[in-house]
## 1
Amino acid sequence: MSSTITVPNLISIFRLVLVPVAIDAILTGRFDVAFWVFLIAGVSDGIDGFIARHFDQRSELGAYLDPLADKLLLVSIFVTLAVIAIIPVWLAILVLSRDVLIIGAIVLSWGLGRRLPIQPIMVSKANTTAQIAFAAMVMFSRAFQWDVGGLWTLGMVLVAGLTIVSGIAYVVDWLRIMSSEPGDPGRPE
């Protein structure tokens, strides 16, 4: 792993800076701006991952900063869309609760002297993809007056289902890791 100051880390920090811009755009009804900011954040996420992998610029800070930037943007968008009553509040609470649960488990593990691997599982990747697609669809439909019809309900159901399943999967994995003894093959050191 390389030093902390890397191009991917700077790009992740840039994505963090985009969060208040996206929130403000949504709150002021500028869904076109919110959509483009969200798109720029998504493209920059792909670029920082590519640079980190292909130019050996991975860092421990980046392992935390990259998912933090992604999650902060997504959760902020879901909460803001719920606050202005574009999506149901229960969906934003579900998305936020899952991430708080995961962060709480990591903090508790650290407090107990256990280090958890920071690696997304397959269902979590599917969940993130569904959240991104749904958020983009909502903002795009508002920005460009596109009637999404049944995609709205399908997107909400998909996001809710994958959020619940991935949350349960993380809890099960966390319990397995926390119940194993140090040195067990099932527990990362």
## 2
Amino acid sequence: MHATLPLLQATAFPALRRDRLTTLQVNLGYRCNQSCVHCHVNAGPNRTEMMDTEDLALVTQVIEARGIETLDLTGGAPELHPAFREVVRSARAQGVKVIDRCNLTILFEPGHEDLGQFLAEQQVEVVASLPCYSLENVDKQRGKGTFDKSIAALQQLNALGYGKPGTGLVLNLVYNPQGPSLPPDQVKLQADYKRELFDHFGIVFNELYALANMPIQRFGSMLISKGQFNTYMKLLKTNYQQDNLAGVMCRSLVSVDWQGYLYDCDFNQQLGLALPGASLPARPHLRDLLKTNPAGDPVRVADHCYGCTAGQGSSCGGALHG
């Protein structure tokens, strides 16, 4: 796989500093039941990396020490970690909002048949990947049969109350472009998703997040192989919007890798760009957050940051402006 970091480090991206830390985004491991073309984590069925018991315990301690409001669980497929449910229960007992970044097909993996019921009982917010509302496009990006399983999973979640008014069970979907292009207008695309999914499958959901593909890991390597890397970077830079800087996720979120090390965002994690800061060691770890507040520290930036600030903007919560 082609390395993209050498192509990203020289940058004119504006300097950023952190605000109050409210969200801990924890990557529980790289194992996944899918292997997607756009995946910036390079996750897949053959990955074995998983967070250990000691670092899982630190997650709970940091939530209390730093007054964390949201625990955002990701992977790979975070549900494949043997302690996934224990982590969720612990965080919910602390009164913390929990987000599960779910690929939907995990609901049909052996041993996970009751996963939907568990998520509903714990009132976990589900952020589910569905790169398109058509079978052809989803299966092209995620593998044959993925679309049908994804639809069945969404119907199962709806039956449990997800996405329906008055239940408190939030179901948000995630869209990624098929290739090196910016996502379309999120508001208009959400209307299309809601219409098509309801008319054809009776599916309802809360919001659609339209995310830009990052020029790193598997997707970045593909761009290099096809001679499209520089063209894509030019697209991101040409569409840079300064107003998006105020809402980028790295100002209020810390990303934690499966070994407990800290980064400004999930993308910096995959590039090995550690969380900076005068009060932190060179490679900060979860245990450092027990005694150190990163508010006011600089954010480590590189050229891939244009992916979060191009056009309508892109973050873990979707577009930064309508």
